[in-house]
Design brief:
The structure is a single chain. With 58 residues, the chain is mainly alpha-helical. It is 86% helix and 0% strand. It is built from 2 helices and no strands. The termini are far apart. The mean pLDDT is 86.
Length: 58
C-alpha cells in the first residue's frame, strides 16, 4: 500500500528543511573557525620578530 501524496510531500519537506539547517550549521561553524584578521596579523608579526631574532643570533 502506498502513502498518500500529501504525506510523501510533507515528509520530503521535513527532510529538506533538516538538510538546509545542517548546511547552515556547517557554514556557521566554518566561519566561526576562520581566524580573524587581527589574530592573523598578530601571528605574522610574531613570526617575523622571531625570524629577525634568530637571524641576529646567527
Amino acid at each position: 500500500m502506498t502513502e498518500p501524496l500529501e504525506v510523501v510531500v510533507a515528509r520530503s519537506d521535513v527532510r529538506l528543511a533538516a538538510v538546509e539547517r545542517d548546511i547552515r550549521d556547517i557554514k556557521n561553524d566554518m566561519s566561526s573557525r576562520r581566524p580573524s584578521w587581527p589574530s592573523v596579523v598578530s601571528s605574522l608579526v610574531s613570526a617575523a620578530t622571531l625570524l629577525i631574532v634568530l637571524i641576529q643570533i646567527l
